[in-house]
């Protein structure tokens, strides 16, 4: 089989993996022999037709697999062409792509060929070639395979910048049903081991600067959303726990795309729940950068995200009593809670107000987008000229346009299909206000 | 007080030349209507003056900003020179005036019309440079890596260190079509050169094969049910597409077994 065919099969088999970030490895300035560096902010090298960024060469070592996870294209029982890279082929391909600046590094995962240990050894072999023979000092993200020997995972962690273990599904029940070869223990075990490896390595690095680094860009994971019936609240709580208990850098969500006909899974023609995935990412951002906790965003009475409004706006609408806040006085944490203001704008406001008392025009020039924020702010004690702030106006400004337009397209509103988007928005705002 | 003059300053187009225009304006306490490179000057009704370039005067502007204001303010003026702002020289002059008036805190005054414009131009240049760190595509011509770019801002000086470290044991050339300059890294020397045009030699078979593999990867990695051309275009605007290997028509790879091992000693 030629390289083109292998690359096609092994890319196709890897494409459902979500993580493609190359961030968090620090800015490196390696010298001497070799090739490659890392940039702390990560660098996207292209965007594919689905709008997702391409940063890493994302392929499987092999798609041969002894596991039979029902949702997976590579499961043992699937009728799919199989292929495997040799370590040399893959290392050379990575270098050739990297030299031409096609990619920021390698994202290597693998089917469980023969056994978790064998599959991991093949990955280690490739990474050793890259790090050793080619002197590759760029970014590598490797996937740890549940069930592999801890010593092998440790070796993998010393070769890769980032390690990840897929948690796969948001509940143990889901796992039992759909991934019979995996268990909560076989997934969380290596996750904890990697966490401890990173912590221990951190301590060693304090003592010996030359201690070999273990997964310096940290650990991430991903889970499939929409294949099993968990609520958004359950998923968000799990995410929060993963950040707190396992100190993950990122949790990724993947809207379930039916690739397999199975009685336990949604039907093949089911559309991937992209809006839900989007809302989960928004909430994930709120947990990591906006100091929100999962209880603030959802609760038992209201366990799903609102399709019409993002989680931060939903929170703001439920806490109108806290607003408006004065731009020139509000603390950073409070500015972050204003719809439309993110960490960048909030930091700029903090800096800009050191030397001046900001008015609305200043705020615009600083680059703060006021479309939504203006309903929640005061500048020098004043609202923006001409803006009438009522509950309804505010809610209307916060409604997320995209799903409304989509709803119109899909005629979710039934007979109201003929109504223009403006009116639909109005109707949506109405629902919202009466619901508060 | 600076007095507004109906006058054009002409300079040689270099950064030192621009700094000398700032020096001149301070020396004469005047603000010209236009500051522009000689070769881009369109004669108008008003008077013009040719400003000579002197390294000493230029250095005094930079040193003055660094010492009396802040290194950051000096950095803004220098970066402004690289930006695509249509009146970057006047903006640099106005910013320098504000810097000497407000001192250290000037870079924080982001609500003001001049400082906010300066920051915006600088930010745009850096964000374009960041884009080019990812979107630059090299082709291998007998061991020399060559890339073409067409940035709005002069990004080559902003991405030089990045590629020098990354491709430290390669030789490379990045050509900037817009500003007709090239960044060259060869035998441990980094240089920025004026280059009028670039005609790359024909592609080798190995280069064609690697390109074909990359295009195949690019096509295969997309998930069809998630197709989202708008999102793709927002992140990667169309003006970049003509520079990107993966966005060009697929040329058929040479027949036979494709092997990357052939012909390259990777050690």
Tell me about this structure.
Chain A is α/β, with parallel strands linked by helices and 436 residues long. Chain A has 2 domains: 3-219, Alpha-Beta Barrel (TIM Barrel); 311-435, no CATH class. Helices cover 42% and strands 9% of the residues of chain A. Chain A is built from 17 helices and 10 strands. Chain A has helices spanning 3-12, 87-99, 116-133, 150-159, 172-178, 184-207, 232-245, 274-289, 294-297, 311-318, 332-335, 343-355, 360-366, 370-373, 391-398, 401-410, 421-435, and strands at 46-47, 53-54, 56-60, 105-109, 139-143, 162-164, 219-225, 250-255, 325-326, 377-378. In chain A, α3 (116-133) packs parallel to α4, α15 packs across α17 (421-435) and α16 crosses α17. Mean pLDDT of chain A is 90; it is low at 411-418. Chain B is α/β, with parallel strands linked by helices. Chain B has 3 domains: 3-127, no CATH class; 136-201, no CATH class; 204-257, no CATH class. Chain B has 8 helices and 10 strands. In chain B, α1 (15-28) crosses α2, α1 (15-28) packs across α4 (88-102) and α4 (88-102) crosses α5 (113-135). Chain B is elongated, with a radius of gyration of 23 Å. In chain B, 37% of the residues are buried. Residues 252-267 of chain B have low confidence and may be disordered. The interface between A and B is large, with 72 and 63 residues.
What's the quick description here?
The complex is a heterodimer of chains A (436) and B (267). Chain A contains 17 helices and 10 strands.
Q: What shape does the CA trace of chain A take?
A: globular
**How big is the Rg of chain B?**
23 Å
| Chain pair forming the biggest interface | A-B, 72 and 63 residues
Question: In what range is the share of β-strand residues of chain B?
Answer: 15-25%
Poorly predicted ranges of chain A: 411-418
Summarize the biggest pleated sheet of chain B.
5 strands, mixed
Termini gap of chain A: 62 Å
CATH level-two architecture of the largest domain in chain A? Alpha-Beta Barrel
How many H/I helices of chain A? Answer: 17
Mean pLDDT of chain B equals 91
Kindly report the oligomeric state of this protein: heterodimer
Q: Sketch the major β-sheet of chain A.
A: 6 strands, parallel
- Please report the total strand number of chain B as a whole number: 10
Total strands of chain A: the figure is 10
Output the CATH class name of the largest domain in chain A: Alpha Beta
Return the domain count of chain A. Answer: 2
Helix proportion of chain B:
40-55%
Query: Which of globular, elongated, flat, extended, rod-shaped describes the shape of chain B?
Result: elongated
Q: Please tally the helical runs of chain B, counting DSSP H or I stretches of 4 or more residues.
A: 8
Q: Taking all residues together, what is the mean pLDDT of chain A?
A: 90
Note the gap between the termini of chain B: 65 Å
């Amino acid at each position: 089989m030629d390289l083109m065919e292998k690359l096609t099969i092994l890319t196709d088999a890897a494409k459902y993996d979500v993580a493609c970030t190359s961030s968090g490895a620090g800015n490196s300035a390696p010298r001497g022999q070799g090739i490659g560096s890392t940039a702390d902010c990560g660098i996207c090298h292209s965007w594919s037709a689905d709008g997702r960024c391409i940063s890493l060469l994302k392929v499987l070592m092999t798609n041969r697999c002894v596991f039979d996870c029902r949702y997976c294209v590579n499961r043992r029982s699937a009728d799919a062409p199989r292929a495997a890279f040799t370590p040399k082929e893959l290392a050379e391909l990575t270098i050739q792509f990297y030299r031409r600046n096609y990619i920021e590094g390698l994202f290597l995962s693998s089917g469980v060929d023969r056994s978790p240990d064998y599959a991991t050894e093949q990955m280690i072999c490739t990474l050793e070639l890259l790090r050793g023979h080619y002197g590759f000092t760029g970014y590598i993200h490797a996937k740890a395979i549940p069930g592999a020997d801890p010593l092998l995972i440790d070796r993998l962690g010393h070769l890769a910048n980032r390690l990840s273990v897929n948690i796969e599904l948001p509940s143990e029940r889901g796992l039992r049903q759909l991934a019979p070869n995996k268990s909560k223990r076989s997934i969380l075990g290596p996750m904890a081991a990697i966490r401890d490896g990173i912590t221990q390595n951190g301590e060693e690095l304090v003592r010996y600067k030359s201690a070999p680094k273990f997964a310096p860009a940290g650990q991430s994971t991903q889970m499939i959303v929409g294949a099993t019936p968990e609520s958004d609240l359950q998923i968000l709580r799990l995410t929060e726990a993963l950040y707190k208990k396992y100190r993950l850098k990122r949790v990724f969500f993947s809207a379930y795309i039916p690739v397999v006909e199975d009685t336990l899974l949604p039907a093949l023609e089911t559309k991937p729940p992209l809006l839900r995935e989007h809302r989960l990412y928004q909430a994930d951002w709120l947990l990591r950068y906006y100091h929100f906790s999962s209880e603030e965003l959802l609760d038992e009475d209201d366990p799903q995200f609102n399709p019409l409004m993002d989680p931060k706006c939903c929170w703001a609408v439920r806490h109108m009593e806290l607003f408006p806040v004065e731009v020139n006085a509000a603390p950073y944490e409070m500015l972050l809670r204003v719809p439309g203001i993110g960490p960048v704008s909030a930091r700029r406001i903090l800096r800009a107000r050191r030397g001046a008392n900001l008015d609305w025009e200043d705020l615009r020039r600083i680059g703060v987008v006021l479309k939504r924020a203006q309903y929640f702010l005061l500048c020098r004690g004043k609202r923006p000229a001409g803006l009438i702030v009522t509950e309804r106006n505010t809610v209307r400004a916060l409604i997320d346009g995209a799903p409304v337009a989509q709803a119109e397209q899909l005629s979710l509103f039934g007979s109201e299909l003929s109504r223009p988007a403006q009116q639909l928005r109005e109707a949506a705002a109405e629902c919202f206000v009466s619901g508060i | 007080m600076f007095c507004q003059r109906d006058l054009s300053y002409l300079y040689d187009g270099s950064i030192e030349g621009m700094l000398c225009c700032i020096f001149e304006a301070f020396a004469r306490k005047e603000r010209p209507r236009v500051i522009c490179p000689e070769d881009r000057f369109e004669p108008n009704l008003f008077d013009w003056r040719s400003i000579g370039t002197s390294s000493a005067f230029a250095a005094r502007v930079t040193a003055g900003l660094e010492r009396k204001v802040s290194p950051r303010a000096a950095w803004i003026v220098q970066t402004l020179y690289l930006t695509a702002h249509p009146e970057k020289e006047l903006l640099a002059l106005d910013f320098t005036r504000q810097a000497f008036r407000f001192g250290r805190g000037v870079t924080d005054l982001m609500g003001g019309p001049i400082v906010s414009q300066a920051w915006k131009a600088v930010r745009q240049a850096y964000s374009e440079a960041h884009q080019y760190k990812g979107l630059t595509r090299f082709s291998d011509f007998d061991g020399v890596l060559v890339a073409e770019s067409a940035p709005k801002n002069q990004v080559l000086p902003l991405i030089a260190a990045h590629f020098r470290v990354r491709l430290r044991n390669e030789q490379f050339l990045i050509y900037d079509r817009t500003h007709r300059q090239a960044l060259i890294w060869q035998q441990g020397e980094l240089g920025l050169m004026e280059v009028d045009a670039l005609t790359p030699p024909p592609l080798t078979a190995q280069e064609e094969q690697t390109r074909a593999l990359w295009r195949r990867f690019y096509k295969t990695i997309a998930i069809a049910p998630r197709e989202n051309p708008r999102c793709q275009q927002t992140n990667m605007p169309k003006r970049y597409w003509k520079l990107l290997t993966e966005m060009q028509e697929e040329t058929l790879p040479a027949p036979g077994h494709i092997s990357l091992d052939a012909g390259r000693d990777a050690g």
